[in-house]
Amino acid sequence: MTLKIKNPGLSTSIQDLGRPGYFHLGIPIGGAMDRFALRAANMLVENDEEAACLEAVFLGPEIEFLEDRVVAVTGANMPIKVDGEPRQAWSSFLVKAGQTLGFDFLKTGARIYIAISGGITTKPALGSRSTYPIGALGGFEGRNLQSGDEVPTGQMELKTEGRKIPVNLRRGPSDPAELRVLPGLYWHRITEASQKQFFGGEWAVAPEADRMGYRFKGGNALEFVDRDQPFGAGSDPSNIVDGCYSYGSIQVPGGTEPIVLHRDAVSGGGYFTIGAIISADMDLIGQLQPHTQARFVKVSMEEALAARKERQKMLSSIRQVLG
Amino acid sequence: MKTRYTYGGDEHVYIEMDEEMSLDAFFKGLSMSNAVRDANIPGVTEICPANASFQVKFDPDVTLPDDMLEKLKELEHVGEAADKRLETRIIEIPVYYQDPWTHETLMRFRERHQDPNGTDLDYAAKINGFNSAEEFIEAHHAQPWFVSMVGFVAGLPFLYQLVEREKQLQVPKYLRPRTDTPKLTVGYGGCFSCIYSVRGAGGYQMFGITPMPIFDPEQKVKYLQDFMVFFKPGDIVKWKPIDRTEYDRIIAEVEAGHYQPKIASVTFDLEEFNADMSGTNAKLMEALNDA
After folding, report:
1. Does domain B87-290 have CATH number 2.40.100.10?
2. Among A53, A88, A89, B231, which has the highest number of CB atoms less than 10 A from its own CB?
């Protein structure tokens, strides 16, 4: 064992890039909510980019190292300490056996990613180490970390300290956050006026924001195009015959508060959806705290694909910088 | 029935076979999703069949969205031409209706329900024109059900009853979803029954509970040792009402590691079913006698 959890923080879990292939059985892809940050953290400690890391939300964990490891922390801005001494984020540093990695209070963002050289090596479930607590699957015994847990990591020769990702290659949401949306799915169910209002609205992240989904409030309620509800859909105009949900899709139960489904999404259900957050901006949602102001920005498929390329280009630039 | 194609962001194509639920829409969706699987389109990572729709997740770096959409549309006729026949299985699922655990839960969330003074079953019976909860329970288990979707959470089956539309039971979901549902609750929402595979939030009405696990990530349950999820779309289910004694007996058997559900192989032919529903159902249920 390499890591001893002295304090798990609020909610710290083992995550990698997830387990595609089981959504048709209700098992979501899971994995890091901010995949850009997870990849970057792994690159800093010279792991495979998809290696399992720790994802901690809002409050950092306290971890005693039982062996020497090189570590990097990316994502949210949360001051890092090793035995009380500050360390730089988005850079690699050594933690020696007996030392404790800890954090000060969160400044901006929501989730940090802690990569450890050698990667976390708990037993994969359905091809991934990502934690899916609802299904008691993956991670550490299928759950988030608790005090006293001892977590194994791979052994590899110690890598270079002081590798660093320049500020212009770090990615996080703007303030207010701008989340790009491709309208689609059941977009036609709401009136043109509501379609306009949705994008014009000032929204804020609601307290109900987690790995399954992010709820937003503050904008205008949506109005539905009149219809007789189809057989099997249910009586509310926001109901459909239960179908599969897209990652990033925006459902609006009752037409009031939009919920963006994220990595631990339910795979389907009976609420209509008005489109989906584009793939490039899913990472940004993972860095939003409750009460953060947000706007939804309408884009075309061409713009969505261009944004996707832009994000990939940033990751390639990091690969180049780190060599 | 008119097929509708739309994007779910830049990584999903969503294909709605019909706005309303029917076995015809389900079969068309299942056949078409099978055709998509067989076509091995580069970049496709997930194919998720649902009740009257299905979804394809793909990597747009491998196949551009517009090309993906075109390739999927080309497969629509394969789905339409496919035999509406399934080699499948019928499973007898024991249900303890009006059990103490769902009762405790439904009382706890009464203020979120349409009828705060009754139970979920009393309400379902009333709005479907039955005189008592017992009559409604009889209608719920007398005819078999078809698993038209697996999902929501790990391994949860949605089931559609194999009866004429005018005999379909319909119940709204809770006004506001509960934050708790006992594991293995037999629920109901819209025209669908379900089994909650894990404990958690839920909006379906609660009718009873089954002692038979349907999801086991540790794969200790005997019949889940090959795979942790029991159900797949196309499975047929016959509910069997049981009492507390039988419930406790099955729980003990599951814990001892030798419970085996009653399962028989059957063929389901949609045209045969549409021509003679009660005859087809009788034949399906007979298969369980030899299981």
Report:
1. yes
2. A53
